[in-house]
Design a protein that fits this description.
89 residues; mainly alpha; elongated
């Protein structure tokens, strides 16, 4: 049974979407520095902060644990949600 859960999507990087790290550094250097320094800072152009991603992923984890208690579940997602799951474990 395959289900799509939008709360497991990758971070919304706002104006940085599709750019390499180097391109973000060139175009938005000060914003990138602030984003790397604080989990509460969102990327340029309306993206998500790491804090927002963590809240979204934690809520998904809680729903999954309640729904599939005692069962094995496979999640396919992206790097930031995966790292967040590990951090929340």
């Amino acid at each position: 049974d395959v289900r799509i859960d939008e709360s497991l999507r990758e971070t919304d990087f706002g104006a940085w979407e599709g750019l390499t790290f180097g391109e973000v550094r060139e175009r938005y250097g000060d914003d990138l520095t602030a984003w790397l320094a604080s989990p509460d800072t969102a990327p340029t152009g309306g993206g998500e902060s790491f804090t927002q991603v963590a809240e979204r992923v934690a809520a998904a984890r809680d729903r999954l644990v309640a729904r599939y208690a005692g069962r094995t579940v496979l999640l396919v997602t992206h790097v930031t949600p995966i790292k967040t799951f590990v951090r929340l474990a």
